Amino acid sequence: MIQQLLEGKTRAFQQFVVQYQDYVFTIVNRIVNQTEDAEDIAQEVFVKAYKYIGNFDGKSKLSTWLYRIAVNTAISHRRKKKYYTTELSQVATQPSVQQENCVKTEEQKKYIQQAFQLLSEDDVALLTLFYLQELSLKEIADVLTLEQNNVKVKLYRARKRLAEKLKFILKQEVKTIL
Amino acid sequence: MMNQEILIFNYLDHTCTEKEREQVEQLLEQDNQFLDLFLELQQANDLMLQNSLDEVSVSFTSNVMKQIKASETFQYTQQSTIAKFLLPFVLVLSFIIALNKIQLMPSQIKQILVMLPETTAFYLIGLSILYISIDFFLVRREMQSKT
Predict the structure, then answer these.
(1) Closest A-chain CA to B63
(2) Per the CB < 8 Å rule, is A160 touching B41?
(3) B47–A22: do the CB atoms touch at under 8 Å?
(4) A34 within 8 A of A116, measured Cβ to Cβ
(5) What mean pLDDT do residues A134-157 have?
(6) For chain A: N or C, fewer Cβ within 10 A?
(7) What is the band of A89 on the pLDDT scale with cuts at 50, 70, 90?
(8) Axis-axis angle for helices A148-177, B2-12 (nearest 10)
(9) How far apart are alpha carbons A59 and A13 in whole angstroms?
(10) Pairwise CA distance, residues A61 & A64, whole Å
(11) Which of A133, A145, A42 is nearest to B59 (CA)?
């Protein structure tokens, strides 16, 4: 498949898009935190991948190379549009949807989105790649162009920060319900 | 404190040793502060793990392929435009250089000058047809190989 992609076969690229579109979209969506823009940015990622496939050196996995494009493109969009503007107090005053013992998937996504708004883009990228459960720590390090040990430490810190933000958001949610 | 967190993360990721696992379970039973920390980290971990992949819209793939096709067409057009201007320029230049190199008698030059518009026109038309055919053939072959 890689050979066909390198030869510029559009049919092979179409299969490639189908295979990775949800992963790329998830990475972009989590980083930019704006679903409306995320799909356009994810499309841009694939167009870039098609354009620069000749630069793929084969030293890493093709998916690692693609995710690197996705992370860089999404981070640059997030910085440009300053998505990362939400303050802790703003999240706390957002209205709750409903009270349920079991948190539904949509609500889970909402909490994670809120928490991600409070984290830096580097933390979000790291957490997203880690929880995709697709990549090893070494591959994550490749995507983010970091040392593997550095990734490990950064990941511990990011997970801790995420837990703190989620704890805060859920606490506020309970307060609003009551 | 950070050591405890690392211990918990490794426990949650199933990457801890047997000894560490026992240590965590013991701490969970004995240390309330550790239990609180564990629950906080576990909750975040579970939320992230349960949060599945986001799905793209149905038209995503076709939109990507349309964009790629559009960018390729633009690229070909750009290349063709450059060639369209460059090639006639080179042809005219070569024609002028060739005329200068040939040593001719004044009478012959006069004869050529009379015929010049006609000769040039035929020369350029012939080469343009040749160029267009090659360009068409190359672009078509490129498009076919990509599909």
Answers:
(1) A43
(2) yes
(3) no
(4) no
(5) 91
(6) C
(7) very low
(8) 90
(9) 20
(10) 5
(11) A42
Looking from the CA of B109 toward its CB, the CA atoms found within 13 Å total 8
How far apart (Å, rounded) are the C-alpha atoms in residues B100 and B96?
A: 6
* Spatial separation of the C-alpha atoms in residues B66 and A13, rounded to whole Å: 12
Write down the H helix ranges in chain B: 2-12, 18-30, 32-50, 60-101, 106-146
What is the SS3 string spanning A104-117? CHHHHHHHHHHHHH
Residue (of A83, A85, A110) closest to A96 by Cα position: A110
Are the C-beta atoms of A119 and A165 separated by less than 8 Å?
yes
Select from B43, B47, B71 the Cβ nearest to the Cβ of A47.
B71
Query: Using an 8 Å Cβ cutoff, are A115 and A169 in contact?
Result: yes
| B6/A27 Cα distance (integer angstroms) | 25
Instruction: Find tokens 């703003």 and name the residue.
Output: A90
User: Closest by alpha carbon to B1, among A157, A123, A151, A166?
Assistant: A157
Is the model's pLDDT at B27 over the cut of 90?
Answer: yes
Task: Look up tokens 């092979």; give the residue.
Answer: A12
Closest CA to B62 of A42, A24, A17, A9: A17
pTM: 0.70
CA-based nearest distance A163→chain B, Å: 5
